[in-house]
Amino acid sequence: MPLISSSALTIAAQSAPQIAAQSASEEAGLTGIAGWSVDLMDAIGAPGAGLLVAAENLFPPLPSEIILPLAGFTATQGGFTLWEAIFWTTLGSVVGAMALYGLGAWLGRRRLYLIVDRLPLVDVHDVERTEDWFDKYGPYTIFFGRMVPLFRSLISIPAGVERMPFWFFTGLTTIGSLIWNTIFVVAGWILGANWHLMEQWAGVFSNIVYVVVIVFLLWWVVKRILKIRKGRTDGSREESVEEILERRARKDEQMRHQREEKKAARRAKRA
Question: What single DSSP character describes residue 4?
Fold first, then answer.
C-alpha cells in the first residue's frame, strides 16, 4: 500500500480552505458581481457584506438588491449568522451615508452654488428650490430615501450641505437602512439558493425608478433649454450667485428665529 508523503498532506490541508471558500458560489453557479460578493463574504465573513453595502452607497451601480439577498444566502451556508448579516449590512449603509454626508458638509452651500453656476443647463435657482423643499421634508426624504435605489446614495449629500444635525441624520439613516436591509437579507436567508427571485422583484422596482428619473431628466432639460431661449429674447437679468446666497442666508436666519420661538413657546407651556 503506497504511503502518502507529509508534504502532500500539507498541500492538501492548505488547499482545503480555498476549496471550501469557493464552494458556495460554485455550487450555486454564481458568477460576476454575485459570485465575487459571495467569495468576499466567505473570505472575511459578515464584515464583507458590510463593506460591499458601504461601497454601494459610494458607487450606486453596485446594486445592494443583489448584495443583501446574497448576504442572507451566505448566512445559510454557516459562515455567519442572520443577525450578523443584518448588523454588518446596516453598519455598512450608515458608514457609506456618513461619508457622503461629510462630502456634502465639506462642499458647503457656497462651493456648491459656484460649481452649479458653471454647469451647462443647470440653474442655481433649482438648487435653491431643492434646499427649500429639503428644509420642509428633509427628515422624510432621508428616512424613505434609504429604500429607493439611486436616491439612497444621493440624499446624504444635501443633508451634509444643509448641515442637518448629524445625530438626527444618523438616526434616520440607521432606522431606514435597518428596515430595508432586513427585508432583503431575511428574504435571501429564507429563499436560500433561490435568492435570485428577490433580485428579480427588486430589479423591476429599480427599473421603474430609473425610467422615472430618465423621463424627469429629459423633461427638465427641455424645460431648461426653453427657459434659456426665453431669457435671451426678453433681455431679463439673472440674479448673481452672491445675491442668491445672501437671500438664502436671510431665509436661514429667519428659520432659525422661528425654531427658537417655537422652542421658547414649548418651554413656556411646560412651565
Answer: P
